[in-house]
From TrEMBL:
Stretches assigned to the Pilus formation protein N-terminal domain: 25-94
Organism of provenance: Asticcacaulis excentricus (strain ATCC 15261 / DSM 4724 / KCTC 12464 / NCIMB 9791 / VKM B-1370 / CB 48)
Residues annotated as signal peptide: 1-24
Protein name in UniProt: Pilus formation protein N-terminal domain-containing protein
UniProtKB keywords: Signal
Family annotation (Pfam families): T2SS-T3SS_pil_N
Superkingdom of source: Bacteria
Amino acid sequence: MTKQIIMAGCLALTALLSAGAAEAASKIVVEKNHSTRVVLPASAGSVIVGNPEVADVTVVDSRTIYIMGRGFGRSSVSVTDSAGRNIFDADVMVGTPVEGGVTVYKGLKPSTMICSRTCIEQTDGMQSASPTPAAPPSPAS
């Protein structure tokens, strides 16, 4: 009888710990056009990216992935083992660099400016020394 109570207690504790681990997603902040390395606790079977326009994943080996910032925003990244059990869950936020970077909004479109003495607009990973051209004049009616 005592053995059964101890066994039931162990099973309940295991279930509680498993549920807590599954709910606790880590938060990862990565700059646009940069990546961060993640070492997995077990071998990966599948990788799921919530929004591939925001984040992407490159699998290096069964226990190492790189999460890359592709666009501004937020995405989830989940990794399961070959049996479908969740081994990694992250909330990924992709933004601009904190130091030396400024975001300028032109209407609803954000522009990332990399600044030292002067600011240069950064677009798609390439720096542009010229300012963004103004909209062409509207045709005469």
